[in-house]
Design brief:
Blueprint (H helix, E strand, L loop, with lengths): L6 E9 L6 H9 L6 E2 L12 E2 L13 H6 L2 H17 L11 E6 L5 H14 L8 H5 L3 H10 L5 E4 L5 H15 L4 E8 L4 H9 L29 E9 H6 L6 E10 L12 H14 L8 E3 L6 H15 L7 E3 L2 H4 L6 H15 L1 E2 L22 E2 L4 E8 L3 E8 L3
Parallel strand pairs: 4-5, 4-6, 9-10, 9-13
Antiparallel strand pairs: 1-7, 1-8, 2-3, 6-7, 8-14, 11-12, 13-14
């Protein structure tokens, strides 16, 4: 008998560059398709980088009413749509959960950047009286969690996390803890980001953080590859229903996987660069394994942070070797960012969906574009094609600017 409450995943929802549903995303991911393409939603003529992982199929009007759209930035629109999917997928019905035990914790690294840009332009061109009254509610990072709680009448724990690219995974870890503590029976959790805007793209390009492979966008995201030159910006949302195990069992819910543990750490090294030895990432993984109460050699698959930056991929490889020792050579590893780009604060949510599907389907998704492994990147990153494998325990890594590291471990329920 466990001495703590167990937490399981009973619903998933996605808005991604590969599609607007988990099954579509998964099918295209295994097919080795790329969601990275030339940017069409704003003029990029004078930009150094002219491509990204946009959710080109997403049209808020197909999913939300006009009133909701007017009051929500694109990142929060995506969050609501993914949350609706996850809730429907979970089979939760009215009365299944006490409102005070139903909570929401979401992550976003930047929040309503598009709204900020548009209203600043209006301020400059038309004056202060023309700035929208919705500006603050639309740009704040907690707009997603607040709006989701309103939509579902969820009156339990309700917060938002902003830890750059670790945001979604930190949010999901917080949701795990909220259920373990008994503060909630059900949590909507995950992340959303829509920073593929003129300012967002220009700012990341100015940092020299992005790939500039404008002639071959689909081949630009190259985690662990010798020819990688930076990450590719993407957008989207990944949301889940985390639920206390007995609560889920009692209502006959389908269970995708169990959330076994969570770990986090700080690099305390540099505001944008990782610790070159991967010590912060290693600490987060070790903490997650300790929280999971499992031995490292039980892990079969790691969905790596794997952004395709020169420093980051080597640091993560060193971190994995440090934590897993000789077992590192047995691990199946992949980076789904190769197919969709880097969704910043949403990445942990979308990547956890891929990790859950790996367990559910017995298939490890590929790292596309990995043609020549880089020096220092000498593990099995599942290059180019998916691999069949029984995955009983898996891990998902998220590392962010500011030195934020987060890791979540999930497993097959038995």
């Amino acid at each position: 008998m466990s001495d703590r409450r167990r937490v399981v995943i009973t619903g998933m929802g996605l808005v991604s560059p590969l599609g607007l549903a988990v099954d579509v995303f998964w099918e295209r991911l295994l097919a080795g398709e790329s969601g990275v393409a030339p940017i069409q939603h704003f003029d990029v003529t004078n930009f150094a980088v002219r491509f990204g992982g946009a959710c080109r199929q997403f049209n808020a009007a197909d999913h939300l009413d006009r009133k909701e759209i007017k009051r929500l930035d694109r990142f929060a629109q995506m969050a609501l749509v993914a949350a609706k999917q996850a809730h429907a997928d979970s089979g939760l019905a009215d009365g299944d959960v006490e409102p005070s035990k139903f909570g929401v914790i979401t992550g976003s690294g930047i929040g309503g950047l598009l709204e900020l840009e548009e209203q600043h332009l209006r301020l400059r061109e038309k004056g202060p009286s023309k700035v929208s009254a919705f500006t603050i509610p639309k740009l704040m990072v907690n707009a997603a969690s607040g709006s989701i709680s309103i939509m579902f009448g969820a009156k339990g724990p309700n917060t938002a996390v902003a830890t750059a690219c670790a945001s979604a995974t930190n949010a999901m870890g917080d949701a795990l803890y909220a259920i373990r503590r008994g503060d909630a029976e059900v949590m909507v959790t995950g992340g959303a980001e829509a920073a593929l805007t003129p300012l967002g793209l220009a700012a990341f390009a100015s940092m020299k953080a992005l790939s500039e492979r404008n002639d071959e966008p689909a081949r630009a995201s190259r985690p662990f590859d010798r020819d990688r030159e930076g990450f590719v910006m993407g957008e989207g949302a990944g949301m889940f229903i985390f639920e206390e195990y007995e609560h889920a069992k009692k209502r006959g819910a389908r269970i995708y996987a169990e959330v076994l543990g969570y770990g986090m750490s700080g690099d305390a090294n540099h505001i944008t660069q990782p610790d070159e030895q991967g010590r912060g990432g290693a600490a987060a993984m070790s903490n997650a394994l300790r929280d999971s109460r499992i031995a490292p050699d039980r892990v079969v698959y790691i969905n790596a942070h794997g952004t395709g930056t020169p420093l980051g991929d080597v640091a993560e490889t060193l971190a994995i070797k440090s934590v897993f020792g000789g077992h590192a050579r047995n691990l199946r590893i992949s980076s789904t960012k190769s197919s969709i780009g880097h969704l910043l604060g949403a990445s942990g949510g979308v990547e956890l969906a891929a990790t859950v599907m790996a367990i559910a389907n017995g298939v490890v998704p590929p790292t596309i574009n990995l043609e020549n492994p880089a020096e220092g990147c000498d593990l099995d990153y599942t290059p180019l094609k998916p691999q069949d494998a029984r995955v009983d325990v898996a891990m998902s890594n998220s590392f962010g600017f500011g030195g934020h590291n987060a890791c979540i471990v999930i497993g097959r329920t038995g």
